[in-house]
């Protein structure tokens, strides 16, 4: 009986000490921060050799956890941060994809421009366009940094004379193939900022009716016969279309 009573005393003392140790070092400890109380995660790890528990602390991930459930707030913070980043990335991709998809439906091939002599005011660019999509694509203009103005032009017969005029809108049906060439459709470069020299490249942007655009690099060729930038009325022809 004395032995049993002694064991009970030791047991009560053990419980008392353990309880005090737990209250002094709980798994979640409140501490003051600049923006108010925050929670710090701790875990009780028993050191069986020493016979006393020791506390392992995990630093909080950030502020703003006061008044919330510490476990869920701290544990889910990295996951929420990654989800927000993924949402922003998905939104950016969603905004960019339509422009690239629309541009890919309009195929531009065989681009070139004629070299211009020093002092030439205008130049021209040519290429071929094919609508590979299932809907009509509207071409509403063009832009290039090499000229003051960039326009879409065509040649028409007026009272037996070939004249050049600007095309404000050009609709390309599904499967339609347009050839921009001397004497027909072409991109007019008005007010060249500098001569177009053979071997150079310059950029042109085609503006589409849905707000999208198609960018292309135009190589400059040395073509001695005829200078489209100076004598537009000398070219005769029509707009070829193939289906």
Describe this structure in words.
The protein is an alpha+beta fold and 243 residues long. It folds into 2 domains: 2-101, no CATH class; 105-242, PCu(A)C copper chaperone (Immunoglobulin-like, Sandwich). The protein has 2 helices and 14 strands, in the order αβββαβββββββββββ. The strands form 2 sheets. Strands 4, 5, 6, 7, 8, 9, 10, 11, 12, 13 and 14 form an 11-stranded mixed β-sheet that branches. It has a 3-stranded antiparallel β-sheet with strand order 1-2-3, covered by helices on one side. It starts with a helix and ends with a strand.
CATH topology type of the largest domain: Immunoglobulin-like
The whole-angstrom Rg is 38 Å
Q: Note the run of SSEs as H and E.
A: HEEEHEEEEEEEEEEE
Which class of the largest domain in CATH terms? Answer: Mainly Beta
How many domains?
2
The CATH homologous superfamily of the largest domain is named: PCu(A)C copper chaperone
Q: Can you count the beta strands?
A: 14
SSE-based structural type? alpha+beta
Measured as a percent range, the helix fraction is 10-25%
- Summarize model confidence as the mean pLDDT: 72
Which descriptor suits the 3D outline?
Answer: elongated
Number of helices: 2
**What would CATH call the architecture of the largest domain?**
Sandwich
CA distance, first residue to last residue: 109 Å
Sheet-strand content, in percent, reads: 35-45%
Low-confidence stretches: 1-6, 27-33, 38-53, 64-69, 71-75, 94-101, 225-243
Let me know the largest β-sheet. Answer: 11 strands, mixed
């Amino acid at each position: 009986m004395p032995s049993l009573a002694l064991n009970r005393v030791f047991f009560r003392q053990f419980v008392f000490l353990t309880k005090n140790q737990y209250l002094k070092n709980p798994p979640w400890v409140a501490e003051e921060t600049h923006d108010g109380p925050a929670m710090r995660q701790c875990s009780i790890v028993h050191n069986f050799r020493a016979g006393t528990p020791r506390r392992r602390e995990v630093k909080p991930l950030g502020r703003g956890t006061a008044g919330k459930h510490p476990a869920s707030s701290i544990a889910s913070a990295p996951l929420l941060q990654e989800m927000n980043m993924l949402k922003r990335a998905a939104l950016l991709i969603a905004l960019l994809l339509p422009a690239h998809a629309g541009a890919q439906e309009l195929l531009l091939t065989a681009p070139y421009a004629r070299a211009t002599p020093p002092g030439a005011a205008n130049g021209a660019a040519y290429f071929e366009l094919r609508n590979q999509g299932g809907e009509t694509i509207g071409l509403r203009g063009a832009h290039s940094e090499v000229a003051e103005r960039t326009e879409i032009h065509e040649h028409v017969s007026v009272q037996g004379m070939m004249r050049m005029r600007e095309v404000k809108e050009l609709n390309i049906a599904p499967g339609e193939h347009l050839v921009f060439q001397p004497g027909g459709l072409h991109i007019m470069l008005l007010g060249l900022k500098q001569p177009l020299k053979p071997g150079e490249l310059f950029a042109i942007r085609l503006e589409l009716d849905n707000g999208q655009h198609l960018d292309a690099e135009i190589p400059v060729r040395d073509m001695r016969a005829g200078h489209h930038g100076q004598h537009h009325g000398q070219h005769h022809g029509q707009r070829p279309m193939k289906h």
